[in-house]
Structure formats: structure tokens, C-alpha cells
Amino acid sequence: MKPLELAGLLAAPTQPPVRDALRRLAPRTLDALIIEALSATEEAWRQVAVDRVAAFAAGQPGNRPVVAAYFTTTERRTAEGMRVVGWSPFVAALASTEDVPDLRHTRTTATAVPVGEAAMTEEVFADPELAAALNRLAAIDPPRHEDVLRVHLPTRRITRLTP
What we know:
Layout: H1 3-11, H2 16-24, H3 27-58, E1 68-78, E2 81-87, E3 93-95, H4 115-125, H5 128-140, E4 148-152, E5 157-161
Antiparallel strand pairs: 1-2, 1-3, 1-4, 4-5
Helix pairs in contact: 1-3, 3-5
């Protein structure tokens, strides 16, 4: 069984064999199993994100080697004000060097888009596998307002950059 399948079964144990097996485990064992499944799941989602970014970079025009891609946060207006809801499924910048581009919100032009249109834009233009991976990673480790997610292609590592 793959880690993602195990995590899905643990998150919603609706199949009788899984539910029965989980009921027989001691609480400490069950906690350890959940922690292990979540950590394996996070790594699996990270690899999906890296694979999708690598495919995107390979499809870009020109022959300059892409080293890293960056993702900024998405926000949603709530009654309490703006709230970070996850990672944007659109590549903010592709860097052909090790230097991190300036992606601060003060220098990034943002356009307010109605919620329905934002969802439609994501559905039409975003890579669905990449969007799913970024959403899962944000659920596991929620980003903060000015965080930037860096996907480093040569090492296949994902790092959160915090100002």
C-alpha cells in the first residue's frame, strides 16, 4: 500500500477491515501510525509538486536551465480581514540562477479577483496535480502571509522562505 492510500484510509476509515483493524490498536500505536503516515504523505506530496514544476520548467521556451520555481501565498477576505488560505498554484518566478527573486508583496502587482472567477481561473489554467499537491502541503503546514515556497529542481527540495 502506498503512503497516500494509507493516509487516506486513516483519515476516513470507512471500509470495514480498516475500521476494525484500527479499533484493535492501542492509542499510542495508533498515534504513531498516523504520524508516520502523515510524514510519508507530506514527502509524497512534495515529490508530486517537484515533478510537476520540473515538467512545467521543461516546457518553457528557451534553453536556459531553470534552477528554482517560487510560489506565493493566496489570501481570502474573511470577516476578520485577509487570511492566508494556501499556496497559489501558479509559478511566481522561474530562476535560472541560485539568487532568490524579490517576491515581496510590496513589489508584486496583485489584482483582486472575485472568488468565483478565482476558482474558475485556477481550474482552467493551473496544473491540477500541482494545485492538489500545494493544497495538501498547505493543509499539513499552513503558510504565513509573506512566506514563499521554493522548489529547487537540482536537489528536488522544497523550502519555505520566510522574511
